[in-house]
Design a protein that fits this description.
By secondary structure, the protein is mainly alpha-helical. It contains 7 helices and 4 strands, in the order αββααααααββ.
């Protein structure tokens, strides 16, 4: 009698497992619902960074530009390195790249394309940030310093690109 009951219970479990509506099973040890059928693509993609999208690359450029602004602020405020120092741009880009790569790791922008966009955004901000100083010198003087603003206004032209100390008017 017990064998027939056990056989019926076993057949009921097999029927429940084979039911197409049953997409997961309950693991009694962990208490989690574990999916029964996991596709090969899902297994291979586990733990990989998703591919770079256009929106993600634009966001990477913005992150790179913001990191350059923060690097320039730290450089001027705490390290006392003025923009006229010969290798100031290299210091800024190095600090911005380190910050952007670290921040990009946290926000899942880890692909090579994302990192190139981080650098492109930082480089774009490096050659065009002086235009923002020309537009709003009082606001930049409040954040950076009046000496910084005076030096930028004296060394650059409005609406230009500042590449290695040379202003190229656009």
């Amino acid at each position: 009698m017990a064998t027939q009951d056990q056989a019926a219970i076993f057949q009921a479990r097999v029927k429940s497992i084979n039911n197409p509506r049953n997409t997961y099973y309950h693991d009694p040890e962990t208490g989690m619902k574990v999916p029964k059928r996991v596709g090969r693509d899902q297994i291979l993609a586990n733990g990989k960074t998703p591919p770079a999208t256009t929106t993600g690359m634009i966001m990477s450029m913005i992150v790179g530009a913001m990191c350059l602004i923060v690097a320039r602020y730290f450089q001027i405020t705490f390290l006392d390195i003025q923009p006229s120092v010969p290798h100031a741009l290299a210091y800024e880009l190095g600090m911005a790249a380190a910050m952007a790569f670290t921040l990009g790791g946290f926000i899942r922008q880890k692909t090579f394309k994302h990192m190139v966009c981080h650098l492109a955004g930082a480089a774009f901000a490096a050659v065009t940030m002086h235009n923002a100083v020309w537009i709003a010198p009082d606001q930049f003087a409040m954040v950076f310093s009046q000496e910084f603003v005076n030096e930028i206004l004296a060394a650059t032209d409005p609406m230009s690109l500042n590449i290695a100390g040379n202003s190229i008017t656009i």
